[in-house]
């Protein structure tokens, strides 16, 4: 709950700051031009995330241990972004999300393939806020490292996403997001995969 409160507070603070700033009808050159309705743009991105329950661990030769979490750690994004209006847009993406550790004694990996459909409201050229649904396909924990435990295939799952995006320029966006996610598997029960993520997206 503390993570949820932190993310919500950050999103509202960013929204208030954006609304408090006024933009003239012709934006100064320091602001990127807001995309106008028309052809879709492709988007690719990379991000880091943290959170969720610990699923497994891997022990390194020096005695240190890497912990694999259901909300970690790195994700790649590719998809399409489309502006219905200057203020309203949709984004559909296919993602690869993974947390892993590799040692001389083996490796452990939790990977999944989320599909997302998000809608945004963009009050000004540099900021937008939105949310939507995420359907995660083939979440699977595999491992051969010492202490990794057995392999587990989780059920596909649907979850909710909320995020804010700041545009460095018209083609580069920085996203802060929260995903409320739960994984289930026979014999394992329910695992919390909720996480906070920070990513950079490129539009072209």
Describe this structure in words.
The protein has a single domain (2-20, 40-203), classed as Porin, CATH 2.40.160.20. With 204 residues, it is mainly β. 9% of the residues lie in helices and 61% in strands. The chain has one helix at 2-20; strands spanning 41-50, 54-59, 65-69, 73-83, 88-103, 106-124, 127-143, 152-153, 157-169, 172-180, 182-185, 189-192, 195-203. The strands form three sheets. The protein has an eight-stranded antiparallel β-barrel with strand order 1-4-5-6-7-9-10-13. The protein has a two-stranded antiparallel sheet with strand order 2-3. Strands 11-12 form a two-stranded antiparallel sheet. The protein has one helix and 13 strands; from the N terminus they run H-E-E-E-E-E-E-E-E-E-E-E-E-E. A hairpin with a 2-residue loop joins strand 5 (88-103) and strand 6.
Task: Give the SSE layout.
Elements (H helix, E strand, L loop, with lengths): L1 H19 L20 E10 L3 E6 L5 E5 L3 E11 L4 E16 L2 E19 L2 E17 L8 E2 L3 E13 L2 E9 L1 E4 L3 E4 L2 E9 L1
Antiparallel strand pairs: 1-4, 1-13, 2-3, 4-5, 5-6, 6-7, 7-8, 7-9, 9-10, 10-13, 11-12
Q: How many domain regions?
A: 1
Number of helices: 1
CATH fold descriptor = Porin
Output the strand order for the largest sheet: 1-4-5-6-7-9-10-13
* Helix and strand run: HEEEEEEEEEEEEE
Cα distance, first to last residue? 37 Å
Instruction: Return the structural class.
Output: mainly beta
- Main beta sheet strand tally, sense and closure: 8 strands, antiparallel, barrel
Helix content: under 10%
Regarding CATH, which class? Mainly Beta
Extended strand count: 13
């Amino acid at each position: 709950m503390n993570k949820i409160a932190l993310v919500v507070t950050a999103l509202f603070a960013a929204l208030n700051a954006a609304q408090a700033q006024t933009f003239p009808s012709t934006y100064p050159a320091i602001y990127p031009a807001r995309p106008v309705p028309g052809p879709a743009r492709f988007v690719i991105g990379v991000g880091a995330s943290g959170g969720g329950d610990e699923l497994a661990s891997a022990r390194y030769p020096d005695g240190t241990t890497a912990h694999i979490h259901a909300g970690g750690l790195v994700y790649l994004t590719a998809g399409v972004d489309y502006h219905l209006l200057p203020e309203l847009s949709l984004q559909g993406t296919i993602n690869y999300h993974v947390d892993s550790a590799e040692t001389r004694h083996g490796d452990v990996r939790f990977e999944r393939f989320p599909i997302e459909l998000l809608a945004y409201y963009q009050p000004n050229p540099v900021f937008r806020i939105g949310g939507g649904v995420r359907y995660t396909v083939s979440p699977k924990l595999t491992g051969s490292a010492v202490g990794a435990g057995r392999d587990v295939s989780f059920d596909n799952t649907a979850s909710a996403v909320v995020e804010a995006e700041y545009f460095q320029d018209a083609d580069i966006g920085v996203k802060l997001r929260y995903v409320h996610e739960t994984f289930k598997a026979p014999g394992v029960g329910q695992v919390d995969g909720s996480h906070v993520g920070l990513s950079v997206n490129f539009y072209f």
